[in-house]
């Protein structure tokens, strides 16, 4: 991926006029970086979520109220650092329900992923998860190779999100 392309897309993020436009730019950039899916929750346990996860998976997640036992959210709450989903079980023993969520996510095409903490609201931790249908090993390699670009992208995204929220 060319640095000039990234710089151009980061500029688009910085100048997005609406929250919808900002989310769309984020999705385009992540897809170009080979991340199939993303989910953004400004508040870890709040109801608001912006995602391109499948409609079926989102419905199941909501219907089963998985947010209350989601191991990725639980690890993020405890750890507060970026991590690969495959490492969740290292940071926290997963119970049967949490293992079920992880298995169902994999079946829904969310095979591998990474989570990043974000702070949109004062003292309220949020999360951005990137996901892919590629193997954990391949995802980990891609994540490592793109980490600095992802970190910068998410920093700019969050700054612009805050600005746009203040304007609404």
Question: Could you provide a short overview of the structure?
Answer:
The chain has 168 residues and is of the alpha+beta class. The chain has 7 helices and 5 strands.
Mean pLDDT: 91
Distance, first to last CA: 34 Å
Helix share, percent: 40-55%
- Structural class comes to alpha+beta
**How large a portion of the residues is in β-strands, by DSSP E?**
15-25%
What features would you describe in this structure?
It is a single chain. With 168 residues, this protein is of the alpha+beta class. It is 55% helix and 17% strand. It is built from 7 helices and 5 strands; from the N terminus they run ααββααβααββα. The protein has helices at residues 3-14, 19-32, 55-63, 71-79, 88-91, 96-107, 136-167; strands spanning 37-41, 50-51, 83-84, 112-121, 124-132. A 5-stranded antiparallel sheet has the order 2-1-5-4-3, with helices on both faces. β4 (112-121) and β5 form a beta hairpin. α2 packs antiparallel against α7 (136-167). The longest helix is centred in the last third of the chain and has 32 residues, at 136-167.
């Amino acid at each position: 991926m060319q640095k000039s392309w990234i710089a151009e897309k980061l500029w688009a993020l910085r100048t997005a006029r609406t929250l919808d436009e900002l989310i769309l730019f984020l999705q385009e950039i992540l897809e170009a970086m080979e991340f199939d899916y993303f989910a953004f929750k400004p508040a870890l346990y709040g109801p608001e979520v912006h995602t391109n996860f499948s409609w079926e998976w989102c419905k199941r997640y909501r219907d089963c109220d998985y947010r209350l036992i989601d191991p990725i959210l639980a690890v993020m709450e405890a750890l507060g650092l970026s991590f690969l989903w495959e490492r969740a079980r290292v940071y926290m023993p997963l119970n049967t329900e949490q293992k079920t969520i992880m298995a169902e996510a994999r079946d829904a095409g969310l095979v591998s992923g990474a989570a990043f903490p974000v702070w949109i609201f004062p003292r309220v931790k949020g999360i951005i998860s990137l996901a892919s249908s590629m193997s954990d090993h391949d995802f980990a390699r891609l994540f490592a190779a793109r980490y600095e670009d992802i970190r910068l992208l998410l920093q700019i995204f969050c700054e612009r999100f805050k600005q746009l929220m203040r304007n609404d």
